[in-house]
Amino acid sequence: MTILRDAAMKSKAWPFEEARRILKRYEQTPPEKDFVLFETGYGPSGLPHIGTFGEVARTTMIRRAFEAISDIPTKLVCFSDDLDGMRKIPSNVPQQEMLLENAQKPLTSVPDPFGTHESFGHHNNAMLRRFLDTFGFDYEFYSATDFYKSGRFDEVLRRAVDRYDDIMAVMLKSLRDERQQTYSIFLPIHPETGRVLYVPMKKVDAENYTITFDDEDGREWVLPVTGGNVKLQWKPDFGARWAALNVDFEMYGKDHSTNTPIYDRICELLGGKKPEHFTYELFLDANGEKISKSKGNGLSIDEWLTYASTESLSYFMYLKPKTAKRMHFDIIPKMMDEYHQQLRAYPTQDIDKQVNNPVWHIHGGQPPESKMVVPFSMLLNLACVAGASDKAGLWGFIKRYAPEASAEANPDLDQAAGFALRYFEDFVKPTLEFRAPTDVERAALVDLAACLKDPARAVAEIVRKQEAAGEDKPAPEVDLASDDFLQSVVFAVGKNHGFENLRDWFKALYEVLLGQSQGPRFGGFIALYGVDETVVLIEKALDGQLANS
Question: Which CATH number, 2.30.30, 1.10.1060, 3.40.50, 1.20.144, labels domain 1-144+281-357?
Answer without folding.
Answer: 3.40.50
